[in-house]
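Q: Given only this backbone (169 positions), what sequence would you predict?
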């Protein structure tokens, strides 16, 4: 969150939004979102913010595991994208795939970031990135991890790291 706030201050674009802030949207089955963190380009005001954030971060809780939870999370991501969000991070601090980054232009093709990787939220937050290790309370290697370890992988890819710019289908 601190690096997202620093990005907003440095660029003069958008706002880093913490948890417990809701965004109103107009969808058939949803009227609002309250992500765990977000990047929002719009007018800040008291109460709910109008419209979807460009970038939303959802951190999994105990009830967010298993097949039913995966379906629910996929529907929520679809709602984010339908409302105008460009990138959604699914953060799983208990799993090996710590961050799955989903993009509106390819909603089923997550880019997986693990400890030692540097995650980004293109195109929602151009030029911003953060070490995945910074999501963990014991983040001791985030800025000292070897560059070779900071690679992106497609969901399900357990082999060699993906190219620095994954191919879009």
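A: Predicted residues:
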């Amino acid at each position: 969150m601190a690096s997202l706030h620093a990005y907003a201050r440095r660029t003069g674009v958008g706002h880093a939004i913490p948890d417990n802030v809701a965004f109103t949207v107009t969808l058939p089955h949803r009227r609002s979102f309250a992500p765990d963190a977000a990047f929002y380009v719009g007018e800040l005001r008291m109460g709910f913010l109008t419209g979807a954030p460009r970038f939303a971060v959802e951190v999994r809780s105990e009830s967010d595991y298993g097949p039913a939870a995966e379906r629910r999370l996929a529907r929520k991501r679809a709602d984010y994208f339908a409302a105008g969000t460009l990138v959604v991070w699914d953060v799983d601090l208990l799993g090996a795939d710590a961050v799955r980054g989903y993009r509106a232009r390819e909603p089923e093709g997550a880019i997986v970031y693990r400890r030692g990787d540097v995650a980004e939220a293109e195109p929602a937050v151009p030029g911003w990135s953060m070490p995945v290790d910074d999501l963990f309370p014991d983040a001791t290697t985030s800025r000292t991890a070897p560059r070779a370890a900071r690679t992106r992988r497609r969901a399900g890819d357990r082999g060699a790291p993906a190219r620095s710019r994954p191919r879009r289908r």
